[in-house]
Amino acid sequence: MIRTSVSLLALLIAMPAMADTFVFGDSSVEQGNLYARPGFDRTGSPYYAPDGFSRESNGPVWIEHLVPGIAPSAGAGAGAHDINFAYSGATSGDDNIAGPVAGTGFDAQIDDFASRGLRGKAGDLFFVAIGTNDFIRDLGIRDLRATSAEVIGNNGAGLDRLSGYGAERVLVEDVPNFHLAPAFAGLVPPEDQDEFDAIMRAVLDEHRAEQIEALRDQADRTGTDLVTVKVSKLFDHVLAHAAELGFANVTDACYDEAAGTLCSTDKAVQNSYLFFDGLHLTEAGQRIQADYYRALLGQLNGSAHDLPEGMARFALGTMDQLAARSRDARFAAWAGPVPQQGLSFSADAGVGSDSGSFAGLGVGWSDGVDWTFRFDGARQGGSIAGVPGSSDFDGWSVVLSGERRWGDFRLGASVGRLSGSATGFRTMPVALMRADHDADVDGQFAEIAAGYVVDRGALTIQPAGWLRWSEVNVGRFTERGDTGLEMAFDGLSTSGVVAGLGVDLRYAATDRITPWLSVSWEEAISGFDGTLTGRLVDNSAGDIARAYGLGGGAGELRLGADIELGQGATLGLAGWANTDSDAGAYARVGWRF
Q1: Beta-strand relationship, 249-253 and 225-229
Q2: Which positions, given as ranges, span the membrane (predicted)?
Q3: Are 583 and 577 spatial neighbours (Cβ–Cβ below 8 Å)?
């Protein structure tokens, strides 16, 4: 069967053509609004300012990589829609740590948005990156728990206003561990540094947890999807994997603004530093942050749902082949004039696409007249395709099948079950990030078939048709990791019915060798669709639902040979390929008693 999954990744890299983007925040995302004001001229500095608007970096900031063409509000003309209202030094309140600059805080930025007659519409994205400067302002002079409460309150008030102006989804950055930036080096004596770091982390961890809870409550109240962007996790990850990500220096600033010294005029050397100045990222760091946002936006649009959907697709494909191997044995049994009475045993093994493999044993019995039964058990393995990273299935299958003869007419049936687990990791398209997973995967099927045998001397022709019901279940699971992008998925359970038609040709070339060929087409006639729901772990974002459809149609060619080895032993060799670009082969040795 065709079980295509239309990846949304290509749609997620670029922002929707008709969607608008609005940004509110501080220097972590500012595009030069502050430096367009009198008294803040940076002419001659090494900061990036190709359009006259100075960034806090040596290149474009992350939002410019994410949304090309977005403009600072101070330079956005009439009719502009992708606008960045952020100001360096802005706080969640009214003040600015860069100096007595009026009209730059979060609330004032929203005033600017409203004064332009702008309103949010479906698909628009709002970004909020503010609050860090409140903590910097109060460091050492105020209980930071009070600062935390103030930031949460101010952010909540601002987000309420944005909801009132039509914002349906707002991405809200958490406060990173800013005390690890070069600007804060030497703030305490070296012997007190570890204790200071621990205190700051504890304060900021508590703030981040309380901010998420506040955003959840606010989202429930307003209906706005308020997504926490865990840049704190991103920067901790970058610091822990600096060398692998190309950073030779994460403790010093490339540009010492006070001394006016620059690490190098070579952009490549500058970007080997994580920090351009004492607090802000180089363009290399900005690009990583843009990648983090792309990954997050992809997951908000359901890209991570490919993982459990891929598990379900693997299980259905595996059960398709369990049923197909039963049909191979059924056609062989149907073709014989009279089944040999007694017991039979078999051992088989095979390989297939996506590292698929199986090895099993079987036992059969026939009354020598009309009835034949078989029971097969096998160890099953394989890889889940279509998901970045690695996810491997390991489990067991059992199949019970039987045939009945009425002259030249044949009836057959089989039932089977697959049970196991998928274990591995999903990689994110950012900074070597990954999330581990374990998920239970099981399924069952039942097939009934009818055929007719036409003998033409050494050639036996068997047209047949069948119906198969299949069900697959992927259990609930939660990814493990520390990236801020981990997902938790509800269980996926789906079932449907497939109709198949085929013809089997067998030619008794000699007394010992019978080559055969089967051609078939299967089509899903009902089911195999539904909606899969997941959510970001420990986040204020709402549930993420994505519809799936695992049905379709596919043709398959199977060919092989049955070889009599003597003393009641038989060797069966077979290979197959289908229009889904899947293929495989297996061998079976049987003994009759």
Answers
A1: unpaired
A2: none
A3: yes
Q: What is the C-alpha separation between 93 and 135, in angstroms, rounded?
A: 12
Angstrom distance (rounded) from CA 292 to CA 127: 14
Phi, psi of 31 (to 5 degrees): -110, 15
52, two tokens: 């006259």
CB contact set of 79 (below 8 Å; sequence gap of 6+): none
**H or E stretch at 106:** helix 106-115
> Which two three-digit tokens encode residue 275?
């920090």
CA atoms 355, 356, 360, 365: torsion sign: negative
25: confidence class by pLDDT, cuts 50, 70, 90: very high
How is domain 19-300 classified at the CATH fold level?
Answer: Rossmann fold (3.40.50)
CATH code for 303-592? 2.40.128.130
DSSP state of 96: B
The Cα 317–Cα 214 span in angstroms is 44
State how far the alpha carbon of 170 is from the alpha carbons of 216, 233, 297, in Å: 12, 19, 11
Structure confidence by residue, pLDDT tens digits, 493-525:
999 999 999 999 999 988 899 999 999 999 999
- CA 212 – CA 15 distance, rounded (Å): 26
CB distance 168 to 185 below 8 Å: no
Q: What is the DSSP string of 470-521?
A: EEEEE--EE-B-SSS--EEE--EEEEEEEEEEEEEEEE--SSSEEEEEEEEE
> What are the beta bridge partners of residue 450?
411, 465
Sign of CA dihedral 131, 133, 135, 141: negative
Domain ranges of the chain: 19-300, 303-592
Residue 337 burial by CB count (10 A; 0-12/13-18/19+): exposed, middle or buried?
exposed
CA torsion 330→331→332→337, rounded to 10°?
100
Residue 68 and residue 66: Cα distance in Å, rounded? 6
Whether residue 539 contacts residue 559, with contact meaning beta carbons closer than 8 Å, is answered with: no
User: Between helices 144-164 and 106-115, what is the axis angle to 10°?
Assistant: 10
